[in-house]
Design goal:
The complex is a heterodimer of chains A (302) and B (294).
Chain A (H helix, E strand, L loop, with lengths): L4 H8 L3 E5 L7 H14 L4 E5 L7 H5 L2 E15 L9 H5 L5 E4 L2 E4 L9 H5 L5 E15 L5 E7 L7 H8 L7 E5 L6 H7 L4 E6 L3 H16 L4 E8 L4 H9 L4 E6 L2 H8 L4 H4 L4 H20 L2
Parallel strand pairs in A: 1-8, 1-9, 2-7, 2-8, 9-10, 10-11
Antiparallel strand pairs in A: 3-6, 4-5, 6-7
Helix pairs in contact in A: 1-12, 2-12, 6-7
Chain B lengths: L4 E6 L7 H11 L3 E5 L7 H5 L3 E16 L9 H5 L21 H5 L5 E16 L3 E8 L6 H19 L3 E5 L6 H7 L4 E6 L3 H16 L4 E6 L5 H13 L3 E6 L3 H8 L4 H4 L4 H19 L1
Parallel strand pairs in B: 1-6, 1-7, 2-5, 2-6, 7-8, 8-9
Antiparallel strand pairs in B: 3-4, 4-5
Classes of the chains: A alpha/beta (302), B alpha/beta (294).
Chain lengths: 302, 294
């Protein structure tokens, strides 16, 4: 079956395309920003959402003009010390050790609090209410090629990325192709990011490390029931164990980028590959078409 | 108190060469325990190739809730209590959205919620060649609480260090600046930040240094692939001078590093005479002196 470029684009509309990698530094952001640019250049409405809130980097390449900056808040308990009888109910039930009851006081460790509100509901004296605490912020703006840009930034010293990621995802715009940059790793922040993805693109490197991390990341995405495609970055001769793994798991290769010091230099200057090295445009077109094909399959159902 | 010196290699971002450097340094330091605290995607064992797993321990993370459909009366109290949208219309809990707060468990009038600890990963104490010990962990995919697992790995490494009487603990840290990183740097004698001379490298460096300063950990810098942008490398050196960081050294771009990775070897073993290997040996000498004095 032939699948044209335009049909691919149509299928991507209002979809979440998430880029994950298992590990940082595989080129996830590079691929995501270049694809976003390519799609926008092809006159699609594109939204780029950077969920790597610990170290967002997409802005370096997409150069957004930020027009709104809003705080990302989490709920925290506020204890009325007059009403509190230090019964210990709240600290005993708090699963995150965010509350400690002392003989004459209840201490709160705000960084540990997940804002679940359990303490408020169970306090027998109704001594706990809630306030908000800022743990990061969200910036929105217009990036090059009219890309709608959103990223979240976790304040340094804050352990919990989840609520900031959630806040980024509240900015989804309908009718756009949403390109989502996920954080590295395979634990909770990644799961939060790819949870509502329509397709997950895994960027990997043809090395034992790359393969090891890819396997873990793929198992997470599979557990979530996501269609998965793979981009091989820095290919420098084939790595047979990767080829075997992809074949055995029926994972399609969406694009291959070679190891090229010009790409590294381009990255080091904060430039988009497809603007500086136009010979790579074809690869990104192929990537777009292949993602469209994966989404088409998903839409078609089984 | 013992006099064991702990150093951690971090990067703000993955893929800057942290594990390659950790692997190389672990063959230079003789008198050490090595710990891989990148519990999300541990890789150091691929280079170190442990001889034998001496001990495997289970790591239980937080609890997760599960509704027993037999007992559930569909009253909706749990859904109302859950702030993470983890409970579906027909009262099934999505384990990936559940934060393990227990609100549903404590507030369910029918006592239909099971809330028990789950196995979240394993950690391993291994022997490596040269009579060394290596501790690493694997978090089960998608699991939470990696900060706690990092703490467990570090504890184990310390115990092993005391037992075997070594002087150094070398930690390969996780990427980022969040919970697992905080857990790997607190209380160490030195944090070595590995970075690349790129705009994102500079951006991430500033954030990670803010973090190490926040937790008052002495910090040193290694610039990897320094020659892909000498200008940024100079800027980073300058940044060190202005921010009370030790500039440890710079490693050139070297295609042999990718080749070494492909064969799961350290660059020192793969190409001992290359410029990158030389740079790492110099970094080691400096590092050793700094830790001795720490």
């Amino acid at each position: 079956m032939q699948y044209t470029h335009d049909e691919g684009m149509k299928v991507m509309k209002d979809m979440n395309i998430a880029f994950a990698s298992g590990k940082g530094g595989t080129g996830k952001t590079t691929v995501a920003v270049n694809l976003a640019f390519f799609l926008a250049y092809s006159r699609q409405q594109v939204q780029y959402l950077d969920c790597d809130v610990e170290e967002p980097n997409g802005h370096i390449f997409l150069k957004p003009e930020v027009h709104t900056r809003t705080p990302a808040m989490v709920m925290v308990p506020v204890i009325d010390q007059d009403k509190c009888t230090h019964c210990g109910e709240c600290s005993e039930k708090c699963q995150f050790n965010a509350l400690v009851t002392l003989p004459s006081n209840v201490l709160l460790f705000p960084e540990l609090c997940h804002g679940c509100g359990l303490c408020v509901s169970i306090c027998p004296e109704e001594a706990i209410s809630e306030g908000k605490r800022e743990i990061g912020f969200i910036e929105k703006g217009k990036a090059i090629q009219d890309i709608d840009f959103v990223h979240g930034i976790l304040n340094v010293g804050e352990p919990m990325a989840g609520p900031v990621i959630q806040e980024v995802k509240h900015q989804y715009r309908k009718e756009h192709i949403r390109v989502i940059d996920a954080p590295p790793g395979t634990s909770c922040p990644v799961v939060k990011t790819i949870h509502d993805a329509d397709v997950v693109v895994m960027v990997t490197e043809p090395t034992p490390f790359g393969l090891h991390d890819l396997q873990i990341a793929v198992s997470v995405a599979q557990n979530l029931g996501k269609p998965i495609g793979v981009v091989i970055n820095r290919q420098n001769g084939e790595f047979p164990p990767l080829v075997t793994y992809l074949l055995n798991n029926s994972l399609p290769v969406l694009m291959v980028l070679p190891e090229d010091i010009e790409i590294a230099r381009c990255y080091s200057r904060g430039e988009l590959i497809i603007k500086t090295l136009p010979l790579y445009i074809d690869q990104f077109m192929e990537l777009a078409v292949n993602i469209g094909r994966l989404l088409g399959k998903k839409k078609g159902g089984r | 108190m013992t006099n064991i010196k702990e150093m951690v290699i971090i990067s703000g971002k993955g893929g800057t060469g942290k594990t390659s450097l950790a692997g190389a340094l672990s063959s230079l330091f003789q008198d050490r325990i090595i710990a891989d605290c990148d519990v999300d995607a541990a890789n150091l064992h691929l280079i170190l190739q442990p001889e034998e797993v001496l001990q495997t321990k289970e790591f239980t993370g937080g609890k997760k809730a599960k509704i027993d459909p037999e007992r559930c009366t569909k009253c909706g109290a749990c859904k109302e209590a859950c702030r993470y949208d983890a409970i579906s219309e027909n009262f099934v809990i999505d384990p990936f959205s559940c934060e393990g707060c227990g609100a549903c468990y404590f507030l369910c009038p029918a006592k239909a919620v099971d809330f028990s600890p789950r196995l979240a990963g394993h950690y391993y104490i291994c022997s490596i060649s040269g009579n060394g010990r290596f501790v690493f962990a694997e978090l089960l995919p998608g699991e939470d609480n990696s900060g706690k697992l990092v703490a467990a790995v570090r504890n184990e490494a310390r115990e092993e260090a005391v037992k075997t009487g070594v002087n150094f603990i070398l930690i390969d840290g996780p990427p980022g600046i969040g919970c697992p990183v905080i857990s790997s740097i607190t209380g160490t004698h030195l944090a070595v930040v590995v970075t690349e001379p790129t705009p994102s490298g500079i951006h991430d460096l500033k954030r990670i240094v803010e973090l190490t300063h926040h937790f008052q950990v002495k910090t040193a810098l290694v610039v990897n692939k320094w020659d892909i942008h000498p200008g940024y490398t100079r800027e980073m050196k300058q940044y060190c001078a202005e921010n009370d960081l030790i500039f440890l050294g710079q490693i050139p771009y070297e295609t042999a590093i990718t080749k070494a990775q492909k064969e799961a070897k350290t660059i020192l073993d793969f190409a001992p005479e290359c410029a990158a290997s030389g740079a790492i040996r110099e970094i080691y000498t400096k590092l050793h002196d700094i830790l001795e004095e720490a």
